[in-house]
Amino acid sequence: MTFFKWTALGVGGVVAVAHIGVLGHIITATRVPEAPVINFPRGDYSSYKVEADKEGYSIEYKANDPAILESQKSLSLDKEKKGFFGRGGHENRREWRKDQFTMDGTRNLGGAVDGEGKSAKDIECIVADAGARSQGAMAGASIAAGVGVPAVIGIPYVGWLAAGWVSLLGGRVGSTVGSTVGSVFNDC
Predict the structure, then answer these.
(1) Which domain holds residue 97?
(2) Residues of the chain with pLDDT under 70
(3) N or C: more exposed end of the chain, with fewer CB within 10 A?
């Protein structure tokens, strides 16, 4: 009878400690921190602004600030102008120029840059490659689902997992083959 009492006391003690642990976890998990700790990535050109009050907070972060650099140049020229055979009048010329640059030194001409300096043929090849990869992946996954999945689905315990792997592998192989075939047909 003593063995039964010690066993019941041991099991009861374990259950009591487990309940205390669960209650402690629930109490600490429901606490809401007053302010979140956010580690902003810092660099030479990053900036951030945080506004917080009792209602909540808002964060404005710029990773590349200033995104556009400006340069201003002015030229003022006053000189006597000699025309053809020494005749002429007086020249008074003033120039003022304001340019904007990106951080990599590219001058902003006021419009969008197409493809970051890529030619039209390069852009056409990128678009064709994306379409060929997509079509190849779809065809490869379909073929793998029709041929490979029935072959591995019957494996005990892991057949369902192997069937998924076969479908993913078929999609990857189809994507690679589609890219190769697309580059040949599109002359890329």
Answers:
(1) 69-101
(2) 1, 29-36, 64-68, 78-91, 103-105, 108-117
(3) N
For residue 58, is it within any domain?
no
Helix, strand, or coil (residue 35): coil
Whether 97 contacts 70, CB under 8 Å: no
Helix (H, G, I), strand (E, B) or coil at 21: helix
8 Å CB contact between 170 and 145 = yes
Q: What is the pLDDT of residue 19?
A: 83
What does each C-alpha distance from 4 to 14, 82, 165 come to in angstroms?
Answer: 15, 122, 52
For position 99, what pLDDT does the model report? 78
pLDDT digits (tens, 9 = 90+) for 38-78: 777 777 777 888 888 878 888 888 776 666 677 788 877 76
Does the residue 33 lie in any domain? no
The answer to the question of residue 141 being in a domain is yes
φ, ψ for residue 31, nearest 5 deg: -70, 140
Amino acid letter, 158: V
Reported as type and span, the H/E element at residue 129 is: helix 120-152
Look at residue 57 in the predicted model and tell me its pLDDT. Answer: 81
23 within some domain: no
Determine if the peptide bond prior to 150 is cis (ω within 30°): no
Give CA–CA dist 102/69, Å, rounded. 6
Q: Is 55 helix (H, G, I), strand (E, B) or coil?
A: coil
Residues 124 and 81 in one domain: no
